[in-house]
Design brief:
By secondary structure, the chain is an alpha+beta fold. The chain has a single domain, classed as Cytochrome p450, CATH 1.10.630.10. The protein has 17 helices and twelve strands. A hairpin with a 2-residue loop joins strand 6 and strand 7. Helix 1 runs antiparallel to helix 2 and helix 15 crosses helix 17. The protein starts with 10 loop residues before the first helix and ends with a strand. The structure holds protoporphyrin IX containing FE. Protoporphyrin IX containing FE binds next to helix 12, helix 13 and helix 17.
Length: 424
């Protein structure tokens, strides 16, 4: 006999729902403190089990991954925005697409993007000359949009007049708003807001079709992610992906590939500003420190704060029974603060990454077959941007700033984060 999964019952369950809505991160942490590493709770109409132990994380994402898919309301909603690209697809479609797209993310190809990433950062810094203060949230979103645009289309989509950049920003804003709602419904109603949203979605697709059409007519195309996707052939059937599939994958890569990295950079800059000792080591270009700063920022503020799966059949996680059809969630924000695996969990200590850690204790990019395809790109990009910044300018959080995470689809800070610029 397995014990039942602990969790709030009765009035405590109701108050948990309310607290989750007000302050989800603190509430999830509190649930693990009260009930342990596997907690059953409700959010709205759904029961969820949060698994907060490396052993359970490895079981879900790796050892028994075939028993879990993404058939949950969250991914259904996301599908409405992103179509059936790599993030939202499942089963055979996902397997085929991952096999087609994976070669485009080979280490060698990602590393070839380095000069473009550095040049983009230097152009950003040039644009800052003569300014005293910037909102790093806006600046990093702008920079990472430029980098992902260059990586995929060899075009600067962040340019103020670039329609894709504008529409991507609107899409992001609308998605945030939808997911905030308690019972998120897809925008299918005849209200002005839903109509506006549907128009944005159509626009994103029209613009991407336009960029793809332009590329197909080009006689000497650049070697970028779009070209790799256009040239990819299924090893069994020798078929390219359909135009519709290509569009879904491109929207997915654009969305997944910039806001997450922007958040990593904002949190890194925030932490560095609060820890001048570490910042000095970065400015002195100490070997490996930039990577460790990025990892530590990803530990404390994982851009994807929570992700989930649905079980297909029964399983046992950390000694507790999981029924078929159960939604299980992994919250890197909470997992990365597990005191057993992360001593002084709230402290900023990049050097902790000099030591080995148990498998499954650090999962900002998930793990196993559905691990983030852009993880190397993200880490390279964040490292190069931080290093390029540290060579020319110091960013100091303005006095009295109150920076707190705002858990939306990605974990960004609430509002703007103003920093004073100190050029060397
Ligand atoms: C610091 C930056 C990033 C973080 C923290 C991050 C995190 C994640 C996480 C947690 C997942 C799994 C989501 C789930 O299971 O539902 C994921 C999947 C994915 N990410 Fe990232 N990501 C980052 C950057 C990127 C970049 C730069 C790209 C592309 C250029 C990208 C593309 C994707 C794709 C396509 C998937 C789906 C993979 C699959 O299921 O096959 N991500 N990412």
């Amino acid at each position: 006999m397995h014990p039942a999964i602990p969790g709030p019952r009765g009035w405590a369950a109701v108050s948990t729902i309310l607290r989750l809505r007000r302050d989800p991160l603190a509430t999830l942490i509190d649930l693990t403190h009260r009930y342990g590493d596997v907690v059953a709770y409700r959010y709205g109409p759904l029961s969820r089990v949060m698994v907060n132990h490396p052993e359970g994380v490895v079981r879900i994402l790796q050892d028994n991954h075939l028993n879990y898919n993404k058939n949950s309301p969250f991914y259904h909603m996301l599908k409405w925005f992103l179509g059936e690209g790599l993030i939202t697809s499942d089963g055979e479609l996902w397997r085929q697409q991952r096999r087609l797209i994976q070669p485009a993310f080979q280490r060698r190809k990602i590393e070839a993007m380095a000069p473009m990433m550095v040049a983009s950062t230097e152009a950003l810094i040039e644009g800052w000359r003569g300014r005293e203060r910037v909102d790093v949230v806006e600046e990093m979103v702008h920079l990472t949009l430029r980098i992902i645009g260059m990586a995929i289309f060899s075009q600067d989509l962040s340019h103020k007049s670039h329609a894709v950049g504008q529409v991507m920003e609107q899409l992001q804003r609308q998605m945030q708003r939808r997911f905030q709602s308690f019972f998120p419904l897809p925008p299918v109603f005849p209200t002005a807001r839903d109509r506006h949203f549907r128009a944005i979605k159509v626009n994103v697709r029209l613009l991407i079709d336009h960029l793809v059409g332009e590329r197909r007519r080009q006689s000497n195309p650049p070697e970028d992610l779009l070209q790799a996707l256009l040239e990819a052939r299924d090893p069994d059937t020798a078929q390219p992906m359909s135009d519709l599939q290509l569009c879904d994958e491109l929207v997915t890569l654009l969305m997944a590939g910039h806001e997450t990295v922007a958040n990593t950079l904002v949190w890194s800059l925030f932490l560095l500003s609060r820890h001048p000792d570490v910042r000095r080591r970065l400015e002195a270009e100490e070997e490996g420190i930039a990577d460790r700063v990025v990892l530590e920022a990803l530990r404390l503020y994982p851009p994807v704060g929570v992700y989930g799966r649905r079980s297909l059949g029964p399983d046992v996680l950390c000694g507790y029974p999981i029924g078929a059809g159960q939604i299980v969630s992994i919250a890197p924000y909470v997992l990365h603060r597990h005191p057993e695996f992360w001593p002084n969990p709230e402290g900023f200590d990049p050097d902790r990454f000099l030591q080995e850690r148990p498998r499954g204790s650090f999962a900002p990019f998930a793990a196993g077959p559905r691990q983030c395809i852009g993880n190397h790109m993200a880490i390279l990009e964040a490292r190069l941007v931080l290093t390029a910044l540290a060579r020319q300018v110091r960013l100091n959080l303005v006095p009295g700033a109150h920076v707190v995470p705002d858990p939306q689809i990605t974990l960004r800070p609430r509002g703007a984060v103003w920093m004073d610029l100190e050029f060397f």
